[in-house]
Design brief:
This protein has 23 helices and 16 strands. The protein is an alpha/beta fold. The protein starts with a helix and ends with a helix.
Length: 640
Amino acid sequence: MAKKNEQERAVIVEGEITADTVKKGMWVVALIAIIFFVYQMYSSWQMGAEISMGEAVKIIQEKKAEKVVEQGNLILIEQTDKSRKFAQVGNKTDFAKLLQDAGVNIAEVNYRPSTSNLSDQLLNFAGLALMGIMAYGVWSFVRAIQRQNATGGGLSSFGKSGASVIIGKRPNVTFNDVAGTKEAKEEIKEIVDFLKNPKQFFDMGARIPRGVLLVGEPGTGKTLLARAVAGEAKVPFFHTSGPEFEEMLVGAGAARVRDLFKRAKNLAPSIIFIDEIDAVARRRGMDYKSSHSEQTLNQILVEMDGFEKRDAVIVIAATNRPDVLDPAILRPGRFDRNVRLALPDITERQEILKVHAKNKKLGADVDLEKVAQFTVGFSGADLENVLNEAAILAVRNKRTEILSEDIHEATLKTSMGPRRGSLMMSESDLRSTAFHEAGHAIVGTYLKEAAPVKAVTIVPRGISLGMTMHDQGDRYSQSKQYLLDEIAVLAAGRVAEELVYGKDNVSTGASNDIERASRYATLMVKTVGLSDKIGFVQFDKDEDFDIFTSKHKYSEQTAQVMDKEISDILNTQYNVAKKLLQRERKLLDVVAQELLKRETMTGDFLMTLVAEHGKEKPPVKEKPQLLSVTEWIKSRQTEE
């Protein structure tokens, strides 16, 4: 036992720091501090006034610097008028690379890179002296941090923002490369104009907007628009994303926000672009997780509109989830402008296709206007992907140019998945699919408000064994009758199978149809007030359930009425489709047989079959003329 105690004591003594060691260490530290202080005073007298990094780059760009010397994290500039100035460089900033990005030819500048100097030697000596008097526990902690840094993590970059900065060399994307989103481009162009020529705005009494929030579905061009800003603006552009602020370490996100805004202020006027800001700006108090993300959000709020004044630093952020953002970040003074990027309409789709077709070899039969008509609901990214897939298909088929059939196939591949022509199916499955799709097509043709049929196919794509494509057009609101007719069209596939094979032999192919029909009926009853029994009231689907009580936020009687109303709508429209197909039973057989023979038929050929074999003449569906609001008002004024 005594021997064990002696060993433990030896371990403890080995890690202790004696009083004499502390005194010697304090004298060494004091001496180093005095020498360093004197040297710094002498250096500051020699260096002159401090300037920002942006001003330093500007002086060198304008050839006003006679000598440029890099010492550690300082840039010393001796101007042609013999005055001296200095600027501080970040730890990870390569100043020579920064000058090259700004368009400066290093060979034409009297530039001397960083070398070991007296200040560096003193700092190294001080570090060695301090390390010599450290306790064993502190030394072990430093070694652990060094090991972690060696694997790519650690605390060395704890508070450093990973944002990339663009100063000189910029992306080759401009506003001319961003088709559609006209209003959004105008809003963003104004921001760039403000930074380029702020005087005209200040003279009018306008203040610089502090933030612009880009909101839109994925693929609508938010990041592309930001790249265009970086290409157009002649100011430093910082690019980062919400997830880059987050870290396992507490406070890392807030520290990186502070560092990012500090860098932006040093190079002001400047722009900060934060992609996917919803990752760090979610509504506070919504969950029971740690408050790390809330600390990051709080720091963003302070930096954007806190006590400290922020001039000439504009924040542009992008998200496709504006509903989860904290209200504090959306108010004026932080994000002054909320720019929404919607899915492109037919005119915008045609403009986007023209932009992405510039470097494509299109055949004479390619009509981009028809492609725009066929791609309703496609985003800008989807349209770019369509033309890229069409080019790949043309190369695969050993063609010298892209044909219309390549674009048509690429459109189907983008929306529905690749063609699965090699899928082995039984004859019964093929016949069932043919009657299923024929039912959709016939009911869609005979119902007045249903979208016209563009094409019908029984070629499997993705998870679908067949498909009926409708010309939905650019719709921004739907009537009650339109929703009811759409439900009937969705039910028609199952109805056709029931009429041909009997109720007990229908397939599971209508699962997606049932899901979509139920969604339409639920929308009518709970959200848009199109139910006679429920009336003009909304029960939001995201907030009608209380997680604490496991009950709806409305009465059980109301829930029962809504459930019955949804069921009644679905059953009623199911019977509408059933009555119509019973009447057109012969036409159903004809269309199904043609599908088995052709695999695919166009809407025009379907109308030929309807005219020859249908019992009644289908209603005429006129395509509405599309006008912008401005054009519509002008036409009305001309008529008056």
